[in-house]
Amino acid sequence: MEVKAELRYAKISAFKVREVTREIQGLPAEQALEIVRLIPKKAARMIGKTLASAIANAENNENEAGKVLRAANLIIKEAVAGEGPTLKRMHTRARGGGARINKRTSHIKIILTEAEPTVEKPKKAKSAKASKPKSSPKKSESTKETAAPAIAQHAPIDKNPDEGHTLAAGYHSEQVTAGDKITE
Hints:
Layout: E1 2-10, H1 14-24, H2 29-38, H3 42-60, E2 74-83, E3 87-92, E4 98-103, E5 106-114, H4 128-131, H5 141-144, H6 147-153
Antiparallel strand pairs: 1-5, 2-5, 3-4
């Protein structure tokens, strides 16, 4: 059973209202009401009033099955902020001119639905095979190699840089190896 409440022609931009409606979408109604009370925005106050109205509609109005819904069992199925009509106003400007001011309005609609009772599945006992640590798959030899050995495989083009030739990447004309002793 769905219950809805709508606030039409709210004097606030729909863009500003959507910031808050995204936060409460899919939450339980009571939890969403608490979140909205903590948000310091004008849109949050309007959404809070609309949400409280939707909860009151669910509790006080009987549905077609004759069953009364409780606030603890309600979830926000949909919280939408659509654009309403824009009021066009004028603002005086320099040298007798004017500029248009758009005073935007919005329609806030909240739809609540009854939460389906969740049935927890019984947990299965772990078997003896599951308790053994899994061995990691063996790595192939090609995956063990890195990019660095590929660079070292290339031989230098020319060891004498004075002739105008260049050396391969990673080589220097005065390259020091681990066997060389550095003396000062």
